[in-house]
Write a structure and sequence with these properties.
The chain is 24% helix and 33% strand. The protein is of the alpha+beta class and 551 residues long. It has three domains: 11-60; 104-264; 283-550, TolB, C-terminal domain (Neuraminidase). A four-stranded antiparallel β-sheet has the order 12-35-34-33, with no helix packed on it. The chain has a four-stranded antiparallel β-sheet with strand order 13-14-15-16, with no helix packed on it. The longest helix has 55 residues, at 102-156.
Length: 551
């Protein structure tokens, strides 16, 4: 039995008042309550009326009356004169003209209105999500500036009292920078909210038109979506770096943007390691190799960076090695994988994790000991790993039948499965190759589906945002995406094994450029270090190249 609130939503209102409908005029296509029947008949005395109980109604189009021929309805539209016409018009003054059926025109326009309404609703959803993301950015930015102000005060204590004016200027500069950037974010958020409200009104009006059978309402509907198509759903406002020189016995300096102060140091204080301040960064016109060294691993698979100058790497043996930027072996972990670890990752605490397809487990290395973190259900085998910013673990897995999916774990509990799109179709293509996975700054989950020769990106809910097939890069050989990584700018970087290059996309899937000038023969594993440099493992040679691609 329906609830009272559901029943209230299903009641059809009279077209002349807000009372529930009881009758229906078939000729005029108007819903009527008992009290409005006479009002309707009197208002349109010249028309004939066929009033029946609402359940017996016959829905049809209401055509315009012909201005030239009384009692005739305009069921056609003259294409030459661009006016509605009746049958007598067609055989009279519009004889020989091309005439299109109004019912066909209405159907076509309703289809267009329906498509536009669906697009508008998608904009509303995207604007809402972007508004939430900007809220988080505002919160994060506020916290970072708050920490910066606190660290400035700590540094003040190490300087002589007479330099207070330096820090007063510094704090003022920080607040001005913060206010300017927060204003920019809030302004864009306000624009999104205003656009969302306008789109909601357009949607409401379009849905009303879609329910209407009146030709005038449909044919006079004008599209208003154009102004919203180019509104960006996200905006990045970067924070300048707070730079200091605090080496004992040297000149003490502090720099923020264009403001700089120096004096002789009397004591030392360092910024907290928790402060993360990014400077404005852009792609270099041409990437350059900073370092190149042999890893001693052939063939070379996954790479995961640790800090600035080190990375974990795995090949096709049971070992996982920690190597520094000079190629020196710093540590070697012996696993029980048969034949080798499927992928590696690290936790926020820097603990090494790896997947073992043979034993169907995800393992973690703690204090030199290997512990099983997750055991997959029977028939499923783990592949790519990614530890997220929120502390969740993303695991790509497949069956013997090569069905692939990505599962989110909180601890040992599965909380999300990503394998079907909105139409119930498999997101990932079946095949022998593993799916490698990476999280982006906005929470998107980026996956390299080698079997489909595509990169697939879904949002936090698992809805497909875009697919990238390598076509915009215009390479000679078929796109073959192997490993994938994201950077601090939210850019997606893919190693293209066939074409000896890297593809760089923005977070919305827009192709930016290829890195193809650094001698990347058969590129595989990818990592980004804390300096924003890209570590690329060359699968066949086992060499690792550290590349500067941002300025």
């Amino acid at each position: 039995m329906a609830s009272s609130s559901t029943w209230a939503q299903d009641v059809i209102a009279c077209d002349l008042c807000d009372n529930p409908t009881q009758q229906f005029c078939n000729n005029c296509q108007v819903s009527l309550c008992g009290g409005c029947i006479n009002k309707h008949v009197k208002r349109l005395k010249s028309e004939t009326h066929d009033i029946v109980p609402y359940k017996d109604r016959r829905e049809r189009l209401v055509f315009l009356s012909c201005d030239s021929h009384p009692n005739q309805k305009c069921e056609g539209h003259c294409q030459q004169c661009n006016v509605p016409v009746c049958f007598k018009c067609v055989t009279g003054p519009h004889s020989g003209h091309a005439v299109k059926d109004v019912a066909e025109i209405v159907q076509q326009m309703k289809e267009e209105i329906k498509k536009e309404t669906e697009e508008i609703e998608s904009f509303i959803s995207r604007f809402t999500i972007s508004g939430v993301n900007i809220d988080q950015k505002i919160s994060n930015m506020t916290e970072k500036f708050k920490t910066m102000e606190k660290e400035g005060e700590n540094l003040r204590k190490t300087w002589h009292q007479e330099v207070d004016n330096i820090f007063n200027t510094l704090q003022s500069t920080i607040r001005k920078m913060k206010d300017k950037r927060l204003t920019a974010l809030r302004s864009h958020q306000s624009r999104l909210q205003d656009s969302g409200s306008k789109l909601a009104l357009i949607t409401k009006e379009n849905k009303k038109i879609l329910k209407s059978n009146k030709v005038f309402d449909v044919t006079n509907c004008k599209s208003e979506i154009g102004e919203f198509r180019n509104i960006p759903t996200d905006v990045d406002v970067m924070i300048p770096s707070l730079k200091m020189n605090t080496v004992q016995g040297k000149e003490l300096s502090i720099e923020l943007g264009e403001y700089k102060a120096t004096l002789t140091q009397t004591s030392i204080s360092s910024l907290s390691d928790d402060v993360s301040i990014l400077s404005v960064r852009k792609l270099l016109d041409k990437a350059k190799v900073i370092a190149s060294f042999p890893s001693g691993i052939k063939p070379l698979g996954s790479i995961i960076c640790i800090g600035t100058n080190e990375a974990w790497a795995r090949g096709v043996d049971i070992f996982i090695r920690r190597i520094d930027i000079h190629g020196s072996l710093k540590e070697k972990i012996t696993t029980e994988c048969d034949p080798y670890p499927a992928d590696i990752s690290v936790t926020r605490q820097g603990e090494l994790m790896y997947s073992d397809a043979n034993s169907r487990t995800v393992n973690i290395v703690r204090y030199g000991r290997i512990e099983t973190l997750i055991t997959l259900p029977r028939g499923w085998y783990p592949g790519g790993l990614c530890f997220t910013r929120s502390g969740d673990l993303l695991v790509s897995m497949c069956t013997d039948e090569s069905h692939h999916k990505i599962v989110r774990y909180q601890g040992q509990t599965s909380t999300q499965e990503i394998d079907k799109d909105n139409h119930g179709q498999n997101i990932f293509k079946g095949g022998e190759h593993r799916v490698y996975v990476e999280e982006n700054n906005n929470g998107d989950i980026c996956a390299s589906d080698v079997n489909a020769k595509k990169v697939i990106v879904v949002d936090k809910t698992g809805r497909v945002r875009f697919r990238y097939n390598g076509t915009p890069a215009r390479r000679k050989k078929p796109f073959f995406p192997v490993y994938i990584v994201t950077d601090s700018l939210g850019q997606v970087i893919i190693s293209d094994f066939n074409n000896d290059c890297l593809h760089i996309l923005d977070q919305n899937g827009q192709f930016l450029r290829c890195v193809d000038n650094c001698g990347l023969l058969s590129p595989g594993g990818l990592g980004v270090d804390s300096e924003g440099r890209l570590w690329v493992g060359l699968h066949d040679s086992g060499d690792i190249k550290v590349i500067q691609y941002l300025k």
